[in-house]
Predict the 3D structure of the following.
Amino acid sequence: MPSKPSRLRRRTATWLAASTIALSVALAGCATTAPAASSPSSSASSTTTDTSSSETDATTSSEETTDASTDASTTAETIASTTSAAEAFIATLTAEQQETLLYAYDDETKTTSWSNFPVTFVERAGLNLADLTEEQRQAALTVLESLLSDESYATVVGIMGGDQYLLENSSSTESSLGQYYIAFFGDPSDTSAWEVQFGGHHLGINATLDGSTDELTFAPTHLGVQPAVYTDADGNTVQPFDGIYTDAFAFFDSLTAEQQATLTSGDVSMCAPGDTCDFSTGSGLTGADLTDEQKQLLLALISNWAGMADEQSTATALTEIEATLDDTVIAWSGETSYDMTTGDGISFSISGPNVYIALQAQQGSAGADVDGVSTSGWGHVHTIYRDPTNDYAGSVTQQAGSGMGGGPGGAPGE
């Protein structure tokens, strides 16, 4: 089982290699799913994260379809394979289902139908996977698999499996647990812009693909997890956020005591779905305070959100973020070691001209209690990724669509 440092070296090496690819292709990351690093948590320290056996139907998709994410290394390849998968999915649908799935590219629903609130609070756009046939569900998940890197797809499958686990094992009365929706804004195309929107309670992916400019972005996107660790139907331990935590603490541990003091004295901010956000940076540690090695570790952490697809897309996004990293502020609160058996988890924000990421441990289970399983703090986490330079989510319209403030910390049923 690889150690955390070796995993980070792979992630950083992938980012550096991807930068070269991006620069060469522009003139005309993402590693594959791996066993989880040794977890400091006693509940998962001797097992591997195996999302292939998740309680969701994504298992079959991974086994029965061609894994396009393994082959894609450029933005153009990802756009082409995702477009092809989307067209194949559409072909399985009835005319009525197609009408529910497809929206105009500039339909305002795109900005109001994603959230970190349950589906019962904020109605999602598109088709509910629970209403589809087995063939249709697999075709829908193949779109997601074609879009995402192997590692990101495994994370998403793990998130979905966690919701299914809560549905089957927790005391929650939230009826929408385990429900996920897919919608397309614009006609799938490898020559013009369109968007894949996929999400449910702890997931909200907004991926914009533009073949005319060879661009792919994931802002805004919400990734969440509850519980942080669970056992699937086959007895495998699943820990969807292990990669994020590994990268976060690799960055934290690289800092000097003085840097850590500055980091933890800063103001952790949260610009969640529904919030009208001015992306204020607040106080904390700035990118200018970091060594080159520390900057690379920070970029490796950021890539968990900004780099969810192929190597070129990751490199393009991180190159833009790196250009203003000196003006980016990082703040941290909560625990200072990766040990999920102690404390109430962590919160951090990364706020700069080209990136906004916030991770926040939720101090409450929202009624989703499971005996012997942590579903609060470490066990209940919401995150948000937004791009201040291209952010349709920061609007009163989205907040009105949510019907409430949108912040991740205080909503009923969250």
Q: What stands out?
A: Confidence is low (pLDDT under 50) at residues 1-70, 404-414.
